[in-house]
Amino acid sequence: MRSRLFLTLAIAALTSVPAFSVCGLTASVPFSFNAGDRSLAAGEYRVDCGGAASLGVMRFHSVGERSTVFINTTPQNPPSPDAVQSGEARLVFHKYGDRYFLAKVWTPGLEFVRKLPMSKTERELASSTIPREAISVAGRTK
Questions:
Q1: Rounded CA gap, 20 and 4, in Å?
Q2: Residue 69 pLDDT greater than 80, yes or no
Q3: N- or C-end of the chain: fewer Cβ atoms within 10 A?
Q4: What three-state secondary structure class fits 6?
Q5: What own/partner pairs with CB < 8 Å and gap ≥ 24 does 119-122 have?
Q6: Which whole number is the average pLDDT over 94-114?
Q7: In whole angstroms, what is the distance from residue 50 CA to residue 42 CA?
């Protein structure tokens, strides 16, 4: 009886997890940064977004540390002309002093950019006198 219940729960869990590969990219981020409310170390990251059922969820997987973070995003349409012109996948960060916050993810072929919400810390820095700089890190698609 228990094994049947466990099997049923396992199947339900597996079928409810969205596939994360629709807009995959890999990028080497040379600095530590925040993605949402999470702090992430510098390193190689695999970034994937879900299929139609979960268009707002992105998965950030640290290749070296084998840690994974899921973050809700919103589509921003259209991508900036410089992103489209370059044709490269990219991660865009907001930099305040020596702090970096992941702001946008763009992969070629998508008609929109995925925008991350500002964390409380980033909102506080944005309202301060510290100037914001946009930093772009090129990514590689599959």
A1: 28
A2: yes
A3: N
A4: helix
A5: 119/34, 119/36, 119/37, 120/37, 121/34, 122/34, 122/94, 122/96
A6: 87
A7: 24
Q: Which residues pair with 76 in a beta bridge?
A: 113
120-139 residue pLDDT tens: 999 999 999 999 999 999 99
**Inter-residue contact 29 to 137 (CB < 8 Å):** yes
Average pLDDT over residues 33-51: 87
Q: State the residue for tokens 């999470």.
A: 38
Strands (E), the chain: 25-29, 33-35, 38-40, 43-49, 57-62, 67-72, 74-76, 89-96, 99-106, 113-115, 132-141
Tokens at 138, concatenated: 């090129």
Sort strands 74-76 and 38-40 into parallel, antiparallel or unpaired: unpaired
Q: Which residues contact 42 (CB under 8 A, 6 or more apart)?
A: 29, 30, 31, 32, 33
